[in-house]
Amino acid sequence: MLFPELRPLVLLLAVGSLLVAGIVKGTLGFGVGLVSATLLLQLFPPKSTLMVLMFPIAVSEIGLLVTTGIPWQLMHDHWLFFLCLVPGAIIGTFGLLVVPVPILYLALSGYILVFLLSQQYESHTSQVAERREFGLISGVVTGVLGGGVGAAGPPAVPYLYLQTRDSPRAVFIGGMAAALVVPQLVRLPTLVVAGRFGFQKFILGGLAALIVLVGLILGARLRPHIPNDRFERLVQGLLLLMAGQLAIDAVL
């Protein structure tokens, strides 16, 4: 079995983790891949968990695309960035299959730290994004992270924000959703062809997506009643703790 230790308490913690990830996404706009992965990796085999989380990540981003509309003009104007997502996602997916688990833990821990730092130094990352070659590099790195661990925000955010700063915010949100969903759409056939994504993972992924969707709806309804700054700091603190735990898991 994929997850042999589905005891009632573990199952309850898993459902709670997915709900929390959905609520964070609904209130703050990020978190499905990052929050759910860091919590669930403490409960289940890491590689299978990251594969199954492909479904809730894709569903949450497709939901945003339905709301904002697909930003065709943005994708046309910056086709190289979106095209680079595809080879990056293939590389990331095969990397997930071959990289040893301790290295995977360290990579995810480091990614969380980069994500938290990028939120604190947004102006500096925007300056880097103005460089001509950043679009190509950002596309490849976003694809690698999306294919490998599912969460891929930091490389894409400054680049797409820079390209859409004179457009309605919905264009940026739609562009980010497209940039995050493309690696998941590449990831699925890559894993199926590699023989690593069978029927059981489809079922578990679908159930996880439904739970996250419930959390997302709850988060959207709670958003007006939650002080965003405090809640965001709480989530950032949780992610920092989980980054430390993943680093410890990698060493032990």
UniProtKB/TrEMBL annotation:
It is found in: Cell membrane. Pfam families: TauE (PF01925). It is a multi-pass membrane protein. The keyword Transmembrane helix applies. InterPro entries: TM_pro_TauE-like (IPR002781), TSUP (IPR052017). The chain crosses the membrane at residues 50-72, 79-97, 133-152, 172-195, 202-222. GO terms for cellular component: plasma membrane. Belongs to the 4-toluene sulfonate uptake permease (TSUP) (TC 2.A.102) family. This is Probable membrane transporter protein.
